[in-house]
Each structure stands twice: as structure tokens, then as C-alpha cells.
Design goal:
Elements: H1 3-14, H2 23-33, E1 38-41, E2 47-51, E3 60-66, E4 71-77, E5 83-88, E6 100-105, E7 108-114, H3 124-127, E8 137-139, H4 145-149, E9 157-160, E10 165-166, E11 171-174, H5 177-195, E12 203-209, H6 217-226, E13 230-238, H7 247-250, E14 260-264, H8 269-282, E15 287-291, H9 298-303, E16 310-318, E17 326-329, H10 330-344
Parallel strand pairs: 3-12, 3-13, 13-16, 14-15
Antiparallel strand pairs: 1-2, 2-12, 4-5, 4-9, 5-8, 6-7, 6-9, 7-8, 10-11, 11-17
Helix pairs in contact: 1-2, 1-5, 5-10, 8-10
């Protein structure tokens, strides 16, 4: 991966962006694409880059990846200055106790820790149970409610205090790859198409959407506004090559083995075949999964926007989803962008995606 792209990825995942509080990450995305795309931001916070094709009558293609991550929100400050919180998105209460966090306040990020009763003081039955999130608390070192309130307001967002780090080879770990990996791929596709010597046979919109984790909201509004003929959602998907995951759930999916392209009711069959054929012709490794029902991604709402959109998913293999130690392969990110770019240049017209 080129240095500038890696630096963008680092900055994107470092920027806090729990659902409803995505502005820091969206600023990073907007600044990166502003040098090669026309950029707009809507009232919900979706950031869109546009790269024009040869003329305005070409099919409109929309790429989307959501910038929001799971996190927490401060809900109550007790008399001793401890912060009680609720989850933003799907947070596993098993993994939160004993973690360092950042509370994102008016004056900047404040470090805290999610407290945990020492094992020495726990009863036998307590050791076997999970403490519910609404009983967990954050310690910022305050001695009283008044002192805590001088720094923190109810409603402040909270994220795990981890950022991107390299593992062996091309593998990296961070919080927030779900789905900043998707936003990253969208930005890279815009960059590659804008730099290509030949204009694409489509008018291309790339969206970094908001509030996916709490109801696919940014995907709904941006699809309605852009009115695409074709939509590709870039998401992450569960790897099944770790010891404790059952392959029967999601198929055989491995890290570093290329993009995942699902099939199912949420996927336009002609667009699926275009992606599969493109990967074969370009010698891009590809993995397949089946999604018998709705996919639970922005592809859901994009597909049924207005009169319907020919929709597909291109997914980045991911280990440990919705934890602070998500793991991806940089090669998979690059392959996702290469696949989408190559497929864009093979699009012939709107009518080719009508199932027959």
C-alpha cells in the first residue's frame, strides 16, 4: 500500500466516530478526497465525492461505506464522579470491563477506564456472570460529581482508547475497521478513477455514510438524494479462519484471500456476475458467501430506494468484529478497490442490470 493511503487509513481509524458523532472521521475523509473529487456534505453528515464520466447521460453509480463505529455515550454522573454509559451500536458487555477509553468532550479527548471489581473480592457466582453494561462505569479520576461535570457532559461520546497498529506481514489491528475499511475503499476508488487516463463509463458518487450502526440512516438518505442506477456497498464480513468461529455460519472466509462478494436477495444477479467475471479476468482473488435474507448493511436501503437500485456488496474480510482489536489485511483493502474500479469500466448501461 502506498504511504499516503496508509496514512489516510491511520488518520481515519484514529478519528472518533460513534454513530451520531461522526464529524471527526468525516473531516478526515472529506479532506482526503477533496483533491480529486467534487465534495458535498448533507445535513445528516454524509460526505459524498463525485467524479464525472464522459457525459451526464451515463448510468449513475453510488459507492457507500459507513464511517460510524460502535462506542458509548455518557448517560449519568454519580455523586462520586463515576460515569455511567450506554452502548452505541452492538457492544459486547463481556469485553468492556478493564478497558481504557476516551471521552470526547468539548475541550478534547479525556482518558478514562471502565472499572472492574478485583477478582479477589468477587464471590464465586460473580465470577461466572457478565456485568450488564448499565452497571458498568467509567473512572476519569474525578473525586466528585462537580469535578467530573467540569470536564464531561451527559451525552458525550466515548470510544475505546486504541488506534491502528501493525501485526505480522500486511495485517493491522484497530478499533473501528467496521466500517472505516469501507469508507477507505470508497475513497481509494474515487482516487483511482479520478487519476485514470480514461473517464469512466459512469457518473460516480462515493459516499462515506453515517449512522449505519443504529439503523442504516445515512445510507437511506444518501441513496434517496443521489438516485443511483447501480449501487455497491463496501462493508466488512466475518472471517471464519479463527479457531472459535463456525464455518457453517458464514462459509469459508479467510483473511488475506481477497474481497468477499455475497449472493442473495439483496444482490442484483447481473451485478454479481459482473463483479465475479471482472475478478476472474483481472486475476483478483475472490471469496463468495450466501446471504439468504437482508444483509443488514447500507445495501438493504440502497436496493429499495425510489424505484429500486441494482445493488451489490463487496466485503473486506475481518476478524473480531465489534471489538477494539479488529484485524484486516491491507492487501484485501487494495484488492477491493481494484475490483470495483475494474468493474466500473465494464458497465455498459442501465438496462444490463434488469434480471431476465
Amino acid at each position: 500500500m502506498r504511504d499516503e493511503s496508509f496514512q489516510f487509513l491511520q488518520a481515519l481509524v484514529a478519528a472518533p466516530s460513534p454513530s451520531g458523532y461522526e464529524q471527526p472521521a468525516q473531516r478526515v475523509f472529506r479532506d482526503y478526497i477533496a483533491t480529486f473529487a467534487q465534495v458535498t456534505t448533507d445535513v445528516l453528515g454524509n460526505v459524498t465525492g463525485f467524479v464525472a464520466g464522459a457525459h451526464s447521460e451515463l448510468p449513475t453509480v453510488m459507492l457507500i461505506g459507513h464511517s460510524d463505529e460502535i462506542g458509548f455515550q455518557v448517560k449519568y454522573i454519580d455523586d462520586n464522579g463515576f460515569l455511567y454509559f450506554g452502548a452505541i451500536g452492538g457492544v459486547d458487555p463481556h469485553l468492556t470491563p478493564g478497558k481504557r477509553v476516551k471521552i470526547h468532550t468539548r475541550t478534547g479527548a479525556l482518558t478514562g477506564v471502565i472499572g472492574k471489581k478485583p477478582i479477589h473480592l468477587m464471590l464465586e457466582e460473580e465470577r461466572k456472570t457478565v456485568v450488564k453494561l448499565d452497571a458498568q462505569y467509567i473512572d476519569i479520576g474525578a473525586g466528585s460529581k462537580l469535578e467530573a461535570q467540569q470536564h464531561v457532559r451527559v451525552g458525550d461520546p466515548v470510544t475505546f482508547a486504541v488506534e491502528l497498529q501493525r501485526l505480522l506481514g500486511d495485517r493491522v489491528t484497530s478499533r473501528g475497521f467496521d466500517d472505516k475499511a469501507g469508507s477507505f475503499v470508497v475513497a481509494e476508488v474515487l482516487r483511482l478513477v479520478a487519476a485514470a487516463p480514461e473517464k469512466p463509463p459512469v457518473n460516480l458518487y462515493g459516499v462515506s455514510s453515517v449512522q449505519e450502526e443504529v439503523g442504516l440512516r445515512g445510507g437511506t438518505t444518501s441513496s434517496y438524494s443521489i438516485k443511483p442506477d447501480v449501487g455497491i456497498c463496501v462493508e466488512v464480513d466475518f472471517c471464519t479462519d479463527q479457531p472459535d468461529v463456525e464455518k457453517k455460519h458464514n462459509g469459508e472466509v479467510g483473511l488475506g484471500k481477497g474481497p468477499i462478494v455475497p449472493r442473495g436477495a439483496n444482490i442484483n444477479p447481473a451485478l454479481f456476475e459482473l463483479l465475479a467475471a471482472t475478478a476472474e479476468q483481472e486475476k483478483i482473488p475472490l471469496q463468495f458467501t450466501g446471504i439468504p435474507r437482508a444483509s443488514g448493511t447500507d445495501a438493504n436501503v440502497m436496493q429499495i430506494s425510489r424505484g429500486g437500485v441494482a445493488t451489490a456488496l463487496v466485503k473486506v474480510p475481518l476478524r473480531y468484529m465489534h471489538t477494539p482489536v479488529e484485524v484486516i489485511s491491507l492487501a484485501d483493502l487494495e484488492s477491493c478497490a481494484q475490483l470495483i474500479v475494474a468493474a466500473l469500466y465494464r458497465i455498459k448501461g442501465r438496462e444490463t442490470f434488469i434480471p431476465c
